[in-house]
Amino acid sequence: MVNARVERIRLYPVKGFAGDDTEKARVSNSGTLEHDRLFALYDDEVLNGRKTEDVYGYAASVTPGGLAVESPQGERIVVGFDDEGRRRLESWLEGVPEDTTVLYDDGVGFVDRRDRLASVSVVSTATLHEVASWFDGIDADGVRRRLRMNVEVGGVPAFWEDGFAGDGVPDLSVGGVRLEGVEPCNRCVVPTRDPKTGERREGFREKFTRKREPTVPDAETFDRAYTVGLICRVADGDRGSSMLRVGDIVEEA
C-alpha cells in the first residue's frame, strides 16, 4: 500500500440526495463525517432512493453559507445546519413527496445502520472502474453516484477494501485516523437505478452478482456477492477532532 492515498471524499448532507466532493471532512463525536446525512425526508419512515423515486435529481452540498440544495429544475436554497434550516428546507420541499416532513439530527445523523453502527464508508477508485467495465453506458462516475461512498482510495487494486472486512484483519490508518473495517456493504435496489432519474436498469443486480462472485473472499464474511465497499467504525480516540483529507496516506494500522 505504498501509493495508497485518499483520492476523493464525498458527503451527502441530505439522505437520498446526490452529494458533493470536499477536500476535507471532520470526524464527528459520533464517529461519522461531519455534515454527512444530517437531514432526511420522513413519512412514517426515513426515506431514501430505495423507498421513493422523488429524491432522484436533487443534490445537496456543504457551502460556506450552510446546506445548499438544488432541485431537478435548477432551483436552489441555502439553509443552516440547524432546526431552523430544517424548517426552511421542509417548506421549500413541500409536497416532495406528498405528506413528507424533514428530520435533522446533528448527532449520528441518518447513516445506514445508525441504530448499531455510526460509520464511514470506504471504496477504492479501481473498484469503481472495475464495476463500470461490467456495464455498457455506465462510467466510473456513474458507479460512484450509485454506490454513494464517503472515502475513495487510489493507488490500490479493485476490491482492495475487501481485505479489511470482518474479524482478524488489520485496521486502516487514513492520515493517522484509525478506521476499523466492520463489514462489507451489502447493496439494495439503489445502485440499480439511474442516480439522476431513478429509472431502474433491468438485470443490473443479476449481472453485478455474476461478475462479483469470483472476487468475493470468503462466505463467512461475505454472505452474498451483491456487495461492494467497506463499512468502517472510527476508533473512539479519533472522534471529535480528527480530519480526513484528500491526499492522506492510507496504510494498515
Give the overall form: globular
- Rg: 18 Å
Q: What number of domains? A: 2
Low-confidence sequence ranges: none
The H-and-E topology, N to C, reads as EEEEEEEHEEHHEEEHEEE
Q: How many distinct beta strands? A: 15
Distance between the termini: 12 Å
Helix content: 10-25%
Counting copies of identical and different chains, the oligomeric state is single chain
The major β-sheet equals: 8 strands, mixed
Strand order of the largest sheet: 2-1-10-9-13-12-11-15
Q: Tell me the fraction of residues in β-strands, as a range.
A: 25-35%
The chain-level structural class is: alpha+beta
Overall average pLDDT:
92
Q: What is the helix tally?
A: 4
Domain MOSC: 71-253
GO molecular function, one term: molybdenum ion binding
Protein name: MOSC domain-containing protein
Pfam families: MOSC, MOSC_N
Question: How would you describe this protein?
Answer:
- This is MOSC domain-containing protein.
- Residues 71-253 form the MOSC domain.
- InterPro entries: MoCF_Sase_C, MOCOS_middle, Pyrv_Knase-like_insert_dom_sf.
- One of its GO terms (molecular function) is catalytic activity.
- This protein is of the alpha+beta class and 253 residues long.
- The protein is built from four helices and 15 strands.
- The protein has an eight-stranded mixed beta sheet with strand order 2-1-10-9-13-12-11-15. It has a three-stranded antiparallel beta sheet with strand order 5-6-7, with helices on one face. Strands 3-14 form a two-stranded antiparallel ribbon.
- A hairpin with a 2-residue loop joins strand 11 (172-174) and strand 12.
- The model has no long low-confidence stretch (mean pLDDT 92).
